[in-house]
Write a structure and sequence with these properties.
Chain lengths: ~425, ~400
């Protein structure tokens, strides 16, 4: 063999590196644009006093009109420019507009704000600073001079052709360096904020744990082979595979207080005394041995929905893991006289502990991030408003983008805390 | 004295539970399929089952046929007797043959559940092993029944509600009976109205366009990326493959405000193009992660052989890596299709124009007091059917995709 050529190897490695970067570049750019930059932008918006209406930067709305016609030399008419600041809050500064005049048109009277340029062929008006909502008119008297040629139609066409151009310095709240902590103050001082946080934590903890336990149970049931197992395994995944919109509304219809089947069935079977508004009632008091036990009703329902919708996923993972356990250890245990519960507790459970931990932390974060389900089921009413629903409420229902972004920042901060905790305590064979 | 480890106690317990449960289920099924206002008699059924338990454990004729024949007859007689001759229909609302069929079904289901739970257990004290096996069998049966019911009922209600008329829904919410005599035009009225008046054809098309485009863009970006991470050496490779999934943990709700602001200014907000940009960005990281694992499993000798034969790296991807990893690509494609088809948040926030609605967005607008409930459910069925068909058809691929593709929701 020849001596290895270092220089050529270096060139090959360089080519490989460049190719790798080229292949990854599109992905990186897209993720940067749609995920990472918005993430940063969210922090920016959270310290801006911006509402939904101010999303468009203020601009000058300018309309040009001609009063009267010029058909022959000596005819008089009037030019009218109407202008308006599109923003109701922020000023426009250094507003200037220019417009060219058709050939042969002579200006007879000029607004003090305006001057003629290029030997009377162009008009330039300086409007200075326009406050929010400011509007006004500029009138220019014109006449057809000696050089005027043409008729009514060509005169109109000439005016249509020259559109006035405006320049101004707009105050754009999004790009300005005007910061405020009012959004965070607003979010934290709101009476319901701590309730929202509490609901979020309840929803996340019980939703995650419930889905995990139900998934574990389902996996135990479907581990044993029986007639119809493939069919039932497919059926079990339906809640997860179907669109959230379809299953959420099915639940809403099913549990409707007036036309829902569940209420009708409960009434029919004499279980309930009157219709129960499952998704609209904040809490329910149950009589347990004479003690009134108050439970959150709508929150319990959305947690049950979460458990119902996501247990298939835990089920799938746990089943896959259990089927990879070698069967001879069970045979050995059987010979040693271990009972079924002992076999589950001392053999199966240690095997699936890793996947349970991973599932728990991932599902925990995803349940915490969940928005669609609660929004569709209750709209965040009746004591089910989580942090994610609160983002929507603040930003789009109350139209305060800044406050919504501030809640989103709180969510992000909590996610970071969770991640740090999880990374510290996660098992090493996490994948 | 551990009475619960006695075979006879187990038989009585299992008998009571199973027969009462089947009584509840058959009564509910009768109410739902006939629309009749029946009354539930769970108590008498419980007693009948508790009597049937000892019969089941003591009755051991030589053949199964004889055993079940006698057992079901005894079971039916017990049910009939304990409920004073009318297990389901004390008020005589149903035709006699329906009552008889219901009794036979309830008796057979109760008896077979009971005997398979009891198994070979003898009416004597049981060892711990046998007792645990018995209780786990009971739990297994109950669990199976519970899972089938909780999963199937919402979908059943969804389909049946979509076939009802407004009047019959309000008159009796429990009546899911279908009368085929009314004809297809009446039965599928909600669907016909959705397609004629609510323009669901366009919505379906929009959803299909966005989902297919998302799948194509995702594959176009993630296949080369995954190949690079799996097969090429470059600084930052380890870091990259680890951090890709972190993106998956960022909630969409955090991104929605900035994207709404920027897309509004760029004119991308109220457009399908905007969705075709956002959806791939959320699916590419996980697609890349899934494909990376598969590509890494392909032997590097294949790539080397390709390089020796003068193929470029891109040709290696299209001619060697991709054909060999078709199962993985199919999983990714199905998974991404499902995510895009089911996506709600961005479609809801971005789309204002009815002509551009995707199915998710369109169905939300059906959720108002002016639109009857059966239209909402018909919309839900229309949105669910394509994904469920795809899922059942390609279940193997999708299950791989779901397990490999993590835990997103």
């Amino acid at each position: 063999m020849d001596q290895p050529d270092r220089r050529r190897e270096g060139a090959l490695a360089r080519r490989e590196r460049r190719l790798a970067y080229a292949l990854l570049m599109p992905t990186f750019l897209l993720v940067l644009a749609v995920v990472l930059l918005p993430l940063l932008a969210n922090f920016w918006i959270s310290v801006k006093p911006v509402t939904l209406a101010e999303l468009r930067p203020p601009s000058l709305i300018l309309k040009e009109q001609v009063r009267g016609d010029l058909a022959a030399a000596g005819d008089e008419a009037r030019l009218e420019y109407r202008y308006r600041n599109s923003s109701i809050k922020y000023p426009l500064e250094e507003v200037v507009f220019t417009d060219s005049l058709p050939a042969g048109v002579v200006v007879t009277s000029l607004d003090p704000a305006c001057v003629l340029e290029s030997d009377g062929a162009a008009l330039r008006c300086e409007l200075g600073t326009l406050d929010g909502k400011a509007r006004g008119k500029i009138r220019i008297g014109i006449t057809a001079g000696d050089g005027f040629s043409g008729d009514k139609a060509s005169f109109k066409a000439g005016f249509k052709a020259s559109v006035p151009t405006a320049t101004f310095t707009a105050y754009n709240v999004m790009t300005s360096f005007d910061f405020t902590l009012a959004n965070f103050e607003r979010v934290f001082s709101a009476a319901e904020f701590w309730d929202v946080l509490k609901v979020s934590v309840y929803y996340t903890v019980f939703g995650t744990a419930g889905a995990l336990l139900l998934g574990l149970f389902a996996a135990q049931i479907l581990q044993k082979a029986f007639f119809g197992r493939p069919l039932i395994r497919g059926l079990m995944l339906f809640p997860y595979v179907a669109p959230v919109i379809a299953v959420a509304f099915s639940w809403v219809v099913l549990f409707d207080p007036f036309s829902g089947a569940v209420n009708a069935m409960l009434l029919q079977m004499d279980v309930a005394e009157g219709p129960i508004n499952f998704f609209g009632q904040r809490s329910v008091t149950i009589d347990v041995f004479g003690f009134g036990l108050t439970l959150p009703m709508a929150l319990t329902m959305v947690i049950l929905f979460e458990v119902w919708r996501y247990f298939p996923l835990s089920f799938l993972f746990i089943l896959a893991r259990m089927q990879s356990i070698p069967s001879d250890i069970y045979e050995a245990a059987e010979i040693d006289g271990a009972t079924p519960i002992q076999q589950f507790w001392f053999l199966s459970l240690p095997y699936i502990a890793g996947i349970l931990a991973v599932l728990f932390l991932l599902r925990f974060i995803w349940t915490f991030n969940k928005f669609d389900d609660i929004f569709l089921l209750t709209g965040g009413n009746a004591g089910t408003r989580t942090l994610t629903v609160n983002v929507y409420e603040q930003a789009f229902a109350i139209s305060n983008l800044g406050a919504g972004a501030a809640v989103a920042v709180v969510i992000f901060a909590l996610l970071l805390v969770f991640s740090v905790i999880f990374i510290r305590f996660s098992p090493k064979d996490a994948s | 004295m551990k009475f619960w480890m006695h075979g006879m106690f187990g038989a009585v317990l299992a008998g009571g539970i199973w027969v009462a449960l089947w009584q509840i289920i058959v009564t509910m099924a009768l109410i739902v399929t006939t629309g009749a206002g029946l009354t539930l008699q769970a108590g008498p059924a419980l007693l009948a089952g508790m009597v049937a338990g000892p019969v089941a454990i003591l009755l051991r004729p030589p053949t199964r046929l004889v055993r079940h024949g006698i057992g079901i007859t005894v079971m039916a007689a017990l049910l009939w007797g304990f409920t004073l001759g009318a297990p389901f229909d004390p008020n005589g609302l149903l035709p006699a043959w329906q009552s008889v069929v219901a009794i036979i079904i309830a008796a057979a289901a109760g008896w077979l559940s009971l005997t398979s739970t009891i198994g070979a257990m003898a009416p004597a004290m049981q060892a711990r092993y046998a007792a645990e096996t018995f209780y786990l069998r009971l739990l297994w049966g109950l669990g199976l029944m519970m899972f089938v019911l909780i999963v199937a009922v919402p979908f059943y209600v969804m389909v049946m509600t979509s076939l009802k008329s407004q009047q019959s829904l309000l008159a009796n919410p429990l009546d899911f009976s279908i009368d085929p005599a009314v004809g297809g035009a009446v039965l599928f009225r909600s669907y016909i109205e959705l397609f004629t008046e609510y323009d669901f054809g366009t919505l379906l098309l929009n959803s299909a366009i966005v989902s297919v485009a998302t799948v194509l863009i995702t594959l176009l970006f993630s296949v080369p990326g995954a190949y690079a991470v799996a097969k090429l050496r470059f600084p930052g490779r380890k870091w990259l493959s680890g951090s890709v999934l972190l993106i998956y943990l960022i909630p969409a709700i955090i991104l929605v405000i900035p994207l709404y602001a920027v897309f509004s200014q760029l004119g991308l907000r109220n457009s399908l193009l905007g969705l075709c940009i956002v959806y791939p960005a959320t699916t590419i990281p996980v697609a890349l992660y899934m494909l990376r694992g598969y590509f890494a499993g392909l032997p590097s000798e294949l790539d080397d052989a390709g390089l020796m034969d003068g193929l470029s790296r891109l040709q290696i991807i299209t001619r060697i890596a991709m054909p060999l990893s078709m199962p993985a690509i199919a999983s990714v494609a199905l998974y991404v299709f499902m995510i895009a088809w089911n996506e709600f948040l961005f479609a809801f926030m971005f789309l204002d124009d009815v002509k551009l609605f995707t199915l998710s967005r369109g169905i939300v607008s059906l959720n108002s007091s002016e639109v009857p409930r059966q239209h909402l459910m018909a919309g839900a069925v229309i949105a669910t059917t394509p994904v469920l068909i795809l899922f059942l058809w390609f279940e193997r691929f999708l299950v791989t995709g779901l397990t490999a593709g993590s835990v997103k929701g």
